[in-house]
Design a protein that fits this description.
It is built from seven helices and five strands; from the N terminus they run αβααβαααβββα. Helix 1 runs parallel beside helix 7. The longest helix has 20 residues. The mean pLDDT is 97.
Length: 159
């Protein structure tokens, strides 16, 4: 069952006549699934792609290897590139990209601990970028970043 903020965000996107697509690394499709459960999903949802592995980021979404090498797969720079590439692929008005670290073993550092999640949301009226560190189990972090994306996008739609 989607959260209230996801339901409100979905309704706000529909009210604007926009559609939405997702490109997800750390959340592996969960964000798109949450939006698919809203009443407006048939009006707004274009689709999504899970790009958990670097191969998908590079070979399918055409994110330059050097960008990933220079900034790591879980970074603001790679997330922004994913959003731009997916916006073209899906021809979507709104595109939400997310990367991050829900477990140890990725590119975590003391400056970028496990729980760090990056969002880049491309809309017709601007781009929203966000870096937040979440606490909890991996699923809790995924639900938190999903609600964060919905909240940021909802506020953006209300302008």
């Amino acid at each position: 069952m989607p959260s209230e903020i996801i339901k409100r965000c979905s309704a706000a996107i529909a009210a604007k006549g926009w559609n939405i697509a997702f490109v997800e690394s750390a959340t592996a499709g969960r964000m798109c699934s949450e939006f698919a459960l809203t009443e407006e999903s048939g009006k707004i949802l274009r689709g999504g792609i899970s790009c958990y592995e670097v191969f998908v980021k590079e070979q399918i979404l055409n994110v330059p290897h050097k960008l990933i090498e220079d900034h790591t797969p879980e970074s603001a720079e790679v997330t922004a590139a994913l959003a731009k590439q997916a916006a073209r692929l899906f021809n979507s008005k709104v595109t939400v990209a997310v990367t991050g670290l829900t477990t140890a073993g990725g590119s975590e550092t003391s400056e970028k601990p496990v729980g760090t999640m990056f969002l880049s949301i491309v809309t017709p009226t601007g781009t929203i970028n966000d870096r937040t560190v979440y606490k909890g189990a991996p699923e809790e972090m995924i639900l938190q970043v999903t609600d964060r994306a919905a909240g940021l996008l909802y506020e953006h739609c209300k302008r």
